[in-house]
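note to self — DONT lose this again. spent like an hour looking for the file last time. sequence + predicted structure for the chain T wanted, 456 res
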Amino acid sequence: MKRILVKLLLVAVICYVSNSASRAQISVAPTTNRVGAATISGSTTEGISYQGGPVMLTPHNVYYVWYGNWSGNSALTILPTLALGLNGSPYFAINTTYSNSTPQNINTSVSMSSQTFDNYSQGTSLSLGAVQSVVSGAISRGALPVDPNGVYFVLTSADVDQFNVLSNGTTQRFCNNYCGWHTHANMFSTDIKFAFVGNADRCIGSCAVTNFSVSPNNNPGADAMASVVAHELDETVTDPDINAWVDFLSDGSGFENGDRCAYTYGNTFSAGNGSVANVSLGGLNFLIQQNWVNDGGGFCAMHTTGNPFSYRIPRDQQLACYGIAVAPNFPTNCNDITDPNDKQMCFGLSQRSQAPCQSITDRNLRLACFGMSVSPNFPTNCRDITEPQMQNFCYGVSSSGSMSNCSSVTDPNSRALCNAVALHDASFCSSMTPGNDQLFCQGVASGSQTPCTSIQ
């Protein structure tokens, strides 16, 4: 998770090594001894930059290598349940806001594919190369397959140390400088993506949230690991080769989506044993960090809203409201919207034409634009949207006159907007949280620019 964003000694978070593993993105830094990172350059309006590299579209096959002594540890149940629960979850759906250069968006699929054990084959102090050897060894002996769509997690027991030597000769260690990381290497003529996550019981004060003596599943070490696993999986699927969705810093390190939200949890609830959680996955409660939503200017969240009308700049929202509200009598309002995708969405819906949608660079948004711009003559565009909530939103608006699809949108504000636009009934907007989104809803649903004037 935190690509040594929080570097204890302000050393580069990207480790360059001489073996076949290219560079390890030292992600989750400890909760203690953290210092500020260098200024980020080159960010987009969504708060994170695309460097042009590949992403992992689908499937996402998770493999666990339980390294060391895990006898009797409930982590053996907790962490596989986490992986199973991530499949199709609103949390993992955040990654569908990321795409490749085609563009194609990441899918919501996650599979807990296979697990194996390693009884200290590389000793109790692992270098980056040794972690890679653990993965290659599991594949060589047939315990795990060669899978270009796999993410191989080496999960070490609390008695195992892990360290990485940076290009400047500095050594960084698990617990002191990071709690987990991910990288990739050419193994068996395949680009293999793998990650290290250590048992936080080794340093519960550093790799778990404060006062984590009681945890949702009564295993503080494993519960802390769950957040690191989620972080590394999010980063691996969006930046598998450290050249896709990452902002590089002036010192050579970088921020990925998980780094931007490390140690932020959003709204929590009581897990019933004196601990707190923020999500239920696979029948268990977890406290896992938020992820960065690559839409609407970018923000940390536990799920996407599914709303294709997300705006970072209020003026953009106001102009879109003006343009869409009086469709198809398109004025010139859309011209001045600063975000390129939002501008084309405005053009498409205000002109009731699919042509402007072609220029939208995010495939999910482009398909939503295709579907909604010609409502109620719904084509099949919404079908291929990979974000489930946005797909339901698209279905609802593009098949005007029906609330059935909008009812499947879980975010209440987005559901209200979907109903209002689908039925051209501004009364649905009254249930939304007062503010710019409500005003946008009222303007677009009523076909009047008047509410739009109050957006600020």
